[in-house]
Specification:
Length: 137
């Protein structure tokens, strides 16, 4: 029997990893071993930026149409400034919304062993086989 458990640690890279490290001993105690970890970046942040980007250009076009002034170079500068802040915003969004996804597998510690003489299953801590009387060394 195999049980897979997926846990999501939120926060930026640093805090998510710290949360994971703090959680591991408890998980191990419960019999779960981490088998895979994956960084998560947020698709929401990306989609949000594209939306803001388009809204900005609609806004810019709207201003242009209403003012009747051709902006020329100013428009270019504005776009550049906006794009830069967009990238910064995107980075901060992914940093804060990302996290760590850790896959755990349930691997309980073995509590039994096989007697090397009679092949019966006995308790792991047993010193003497209850079937054949074999002494474990
Ligand atoms: Zn035995």
């Amino acid at each position: 029997m195999e049980t897979i458990l997926v846990k999501h640690y939120t926060g930026n890279e640093e805090t998510a990893f710290k949360a994971f490290q703090e959680d591991v001993p408890q998980m191990l105690f419960e019999g779960y071993s981490p088998i895979n970890q994956q960084k998560i970046s947020t698709p929401l942040g990306c989609g949000l930026c594209i939306l803001i980007y388009f809204l900005f250009f609609f806004f810019l076009t709207w201003i242009k149409l209403n003012s009747g002034i051709s902006w020329g170079f100013a428009e270019f500068i504005l776009s550049y400034i906006f794009l830069t802040s967009l990238i910064i915003l995107y980075n901060s969004l992914t940093k804060n919304r990302g996290g760590l996804m850790v896959t755990y597998e349930y691997r309980p510690k073995k509590k039994e062993k096989t007697c090397s003489k009679c092949a019966e299953t006995v308790k792991l801590d047993a010193k003497l086989c209850r079937y054949c009387g074999y002494f474990f060394t």
